[in-house]
Amino acid sequence: METNQLRIQDLLSFGYLYLLLLGVIRDSLYFGLMGVNIILYSSVTDILFSPLAYLVDEPYLTLFFVLATYFAVIQPKFHQKHKGKSWYKRIFDEEKREERFSKPSLISAELVFVTFMISSMLLGTGLGRGIGMSKKMRNQECKHNDRVEFVDGETEEVAIIGQNSLYIFYVMKGQTQVAISPINGVVKRIEIDAIKNE
User: What would the pLDDT profile of 34-44 be if each residue is shown by its tens digit?
Assistant: First the structure.
């Protein structure tokens, strides 16, 4: 029991650190392609909570973590608990499953595959979105459907490209560079277009 609990804790810790590292790399790629060093504009809290933000923002990550947990933890435990029961023998080939779960290398290979898929998708989306947005900025093709209202009463129609707890990153009409405004004390209200065609 303690071994299984330890394994789940290890998987969750590894998963969190893995997502944390991938999140920093993904953000660095995305914003770096637009000339912004995001690490300079991120708080420790932004970095620590980025894995949760990615799980919410990218539903496929949640799906892959559920699959990884299923293949590496739940499926072997389920087999060990029910392998002698008649209903289990009718549904599954008990001998094949016993052979499969007795080889930890196979379960590890499934986990490595899921981990590789997550990193490919997360880094691929960061790189792809960054290239796409930087191209739109250079060609002045950004859709300025969002609004930022500043505390002095001025309102700008912008294309918001990102936000964290401290700053908002956007492109103003006629500009080819990212503008960065601190949220506290500068920005009064942000209106984001819910139906974006970007």
Answer: 999 999 999 99
The dihedral through the CA atoms of 77, 82, 87, 92 has a sign that is positive
For range 170-174, the mean pLDDT: 91
What separation in angstroms does the CA of 158 have from each of 124, 143, 154, 168?
26, 8, 13, 11
Q: Is the pLDDT of residue 175 over 70?
A: yes
Residue 120 token pair:
């490919």
Q: Look up residue 22 and give its amino acid.
A: L
CA torsion through residues 85, 90, 95, 97, sign: negative
Provide the H-helix boundaries in the chain.
Answer: 2-32, 44-57, 59-69, 75-82, 86-91, 94-101, 104-138
At 182 the pLDDT is 92
Q: Give the max Cα distance, the chain.
A: 73
Structural contact between residues 161 and 169, judged by C-beta atoms closer than 8 angstroms: yes
- Sole residue written with tokens 């947005």: 133
